[in-house]
Amino acid sequence: MEINGLNSNINSVNNTQNTSLERIASGLQINQASDDASSLAISDALRLQRSDLSQSIQNLNQGIALTRIASDGLDNQKEILEQITTKLLQANTATTSSDGKEAIKQEVSALVEQFKAIGENTKFNDQKLIDNEGVPSTLDISTSDETLAIDVPNTVQIGNELETLVGNADFSQGDIPGIIDRVRTATDELNEAQSGFASTENQLESSARNSISEQVNIAKASSSIVDVDFGKEINDFSKANILTQVGYLVSTQANAAQEQNLKLLV
Description:
Layout: H1 2-26, H2 37-91, H3 98-121, E1 123-124, E2 127-128, E3 138-142, E4 147-151, H4 155-168, H5 176-226, H6 230-265
Antiparallel strand pairs: 1-2, 3-4
Helix pairs in contact: 1-6, 2-3, 2-5, 3-4, 4-5
């Protein structure tokens, strides 16, 4: 009976040794449900939460890139409107000849075409950002908590209106002030649209910072549950290894003594 009990203790120590070795090899405290079912369930829930946050952060980063591209496009259009205003003021003076005014008109027409081209070609993943093509629409960006919608401005329509005004205007007959007024209102419209993109970008950046912070905290929580304490496991493995060797030695001696006793009885 004593030998059976000794063998049972040796088997128990072997199991402890194997468990420590498995944890050291994998780097994980929990390698199967039998190790700690409740902790494994918590770890799986945290892993899914981290996965959701990773996707949310990816969406946020794409949204931030989108708003910056749109804002840059609007910046370029505003620069063109400034150039148009400068040209119109130059043409709206008595010192500019009729031929000079006609030449300026051609330059303004070319600038308007550039303005429209920027509106048509400012895109993210082939989606137009500052040209709704005459149909009110929004750019939707989903986070882990909400969906942000950005109104898409119709800058190409602004360009079309300027194109018509410039094309029908007679720069020698006092039509220039009306065009200047429209350019100024167009600048206000672009500023309003740019403000919307900037506000959304700030929201996205704030959400991204919060999501990253939450992801780090979840990673720490998950690590405290599943990651192995190498120092402890190596210590446990060493203890189990020594106990196993001692157990085998004692078992061998016990078996030898039992055999000796049997010989004496015979």
